Structure formats: C-alpha cells, structure tokens
Amino acid sequence: MELRAEDVFRPGAFPEYTYISRKSAISNLPYEFRLSQAIRVSGFLTSLVGPSKMGKTILCEKVVGFDRIVEISGADFNGDMEFWRLVAAKAGLAYKGQFSTEHIITNTQDKYGKKEEYALTKDKVIDYYNRNNLILVIDDFHYAPEEKRRLIAQQLKDAIRRGFKAIVVSLPHRSDEAIRQNADLSGRLSLINIEAWKVEDLKEIAKIGFAKLNIHIEDKVAQMIAVESLSSPQLMQYICLNICTILEMDSSRQDNVRAEVLETAYRFTTANFEYGDVVALMKKGPNTRGKNRNQFVAKDGNEYDLYELIVKSIAENPPMMKLDFDTIRKRINELIADTCKKPTQQAIKESLAKLQELLHEREDIFKVLDWKEGILYILDPLFLFYLRWGGGSEA
Fold this sequence. Notes:
41% of the residues lie in helices and 16% in strands. With 395 residues, the protein is α/β, with parallel strands linked by helices. It has a 5-stranded parallel beta sheet with strand order 2-5-6-1-7, sandwiched between helices. Helix 8 (199-212) packs parallel to helix 10 (233-249), helix 12 (276-284) packs across helix 13 and helix 13 (306-314) crosses helix 14 (325-335). The longest helix has 17 residues, at 233-249. The mean pLDDT is 89.
C-alpha cells in the first residue's frame, strides 16, 4: 500500500513510521529501556519530566502499549471530580450506579423488583488495574490545581504500595514538586528526566519520513527545519506534513524539498495555533491605571513600550527556549535605535515578573513562560514558533 503524507508525519498521534528512539545523555541508555525498567519495579511511582511537546506521552504509548495504558490529563482534575472516580471511569468502570434485583414471595410466588445502589471502593479500582495489568498515565500533571496535585500525590503514595502502577508526566520548573519533593514518596520514585531533542535527532524524522514518501531532502534543508522546530518532535512532524501539502499543490516540485518552500510551510503551520490572544495580552501588559508607559524608538522607526519589546525580543534569532537575563537585555537593546535611551535592568526584570503574573492568572493556554531566578523559560515551543512565523512579534 502506498503511504500518504498523513500516514508518515503524524503531529498529533503515534508516529508509526517516524518514531525516533533517543538515549539519555546522562545514562547513555534509551528512554524506552529506562521507562520499561521503571514500571517493572513494584511499589514505585514513575515521574517523567520534560519540556512541553517533547514526546513524553508518545514514549509512554510506545513502552506501555495502547492495550495497557489508561491516560488522564491533569486538566481533568479541575472541579470536584474525585480521584478514584475519574481513574475508574477512564478504565471503563462505573464508580457508582444502580442495579435491579428480582425477588419472589415464597407463599404467593409473586415477583417484585428492587433497585439497589452500588459504589466501587478504592481497593476494587486498584485490584481491577492490577488484574488487567493496566498502567495509569497522568499527563500534563501541571494542569491540575496545586491543591489537587498534593491530594493526587497522597492517593498515589498509598496505591503504589498495593501494586498499582502509575506514571506522572509533567513539565520541569513548575509542577513536579508535589511528587518529587514529597517526603512520603522519598525512596519510592523512579525519576526520568526527558532532555530536549537535539537537532540531529529531529533531522531523522524528516530524512526517514520523506524517504518513505520517495521525496528527496538535502541534509542542510532537514537541518534548517530541525532548528526551527525548537527541539519539539511534534512541531517537526507538523512542519514536514505541511511541506508535503505544499509540494502536492505544485506538481513540478513534488519529489524534492527545497529551502524556498520552508518559510511558506512555517507560516502555514501556524494557521491553527491559537496564541493570538496570548500575544495580544503580553503586548498590552498589566493595567497601567491611567499612567502612560515609556516609549522607545526602535530601529524599524516605530515606537514600542517595554512589554512590546519583550515580546519582540523573544522572537528574535536564534530561536531559544531558555534565555538568561543578559540575553534578553541584549536583544531588547539591539531592537532600540542607537540614539534612544535604553530601559534599565530593574525595569526589564520588573516587567518580566509582572508579565508572568499576568499570564498565570489566566487559562492554561496563557501559561507559556516562566521567569525564574534570572532565566526566562519558554514552556511551549508552539507558542515561540507562532511568535516567529505567525505574525505574533509584529506590532
């Protein structure tokens, strides 16, 4: 059967034809081996931590298998949903319900029905998972409210002692404290840190995938795409799929990926990214309460306030998911005209802190960065990609 582009490049699903196995730089062991080893240890909880869009969920699906994995998102725990009720429901179990029974009156042989209620206990849910060799994967653990994260950690501490197997997937710098810094879980954790993808690994997705489709791509072109993918295999898959769409629209270039199509593919890729409101909020900044902000004349002739300059500086070359303060300040100063006064270090630091506070007050899609101990972490590579190619950095 002839493969289609959407069969080969799958940004939102398990990539059967372009799955790339990687090794940890620390242990020099494949991540698949480390995760497989971790879930075999009874009484231990597995903590899988790594940057967003790095293939952590895909790794779980590869190792655990679709027939054994039960996936829950941290976002599912918003509201009053009980932990074990949700864990049961995701495995197809009714946590509470009614059943009818039929009774016969001995003397008359008359029949009557009676409805009775039942409720699963935590022990029965754990037993069901153990008997069916199921593994719970809590993805995007950081999306659960802080108080819920602590409660989940407490529930898992007791469950793993009874043979229950679970993997908690979260982002670094933010939300794994409830698991990794929980004294009750000390000595009962299998810790796996997923490192950012290297350009060489991302290139393999393009080279293997396009070869499956009988499309030629030069190494330098694959390198350009890999750099722009911001260490995200999901973004790499997305860009490659859109390149195929562009090639199909132009039959004269259908068997060769040229550098000229890349910018079109990048902009096409951002079409479905919903970060417009995020960028608008960042540029607007917090409420000034009637005060006018300082304006800075940029080298492009326009005037920007400090929040707009921060947004533009994040989008500058080279693309980076982690920027220290000196890099941010240098980028901002390079945007401003030489004759214009530059913002102070204190003003930049205060604006970054206020910007993070503003974003973290909103819905999860707004939580795209962390300003922590002098370093700005971009948490979502798709957001940075949108800034660079979706018009997000323009005034």
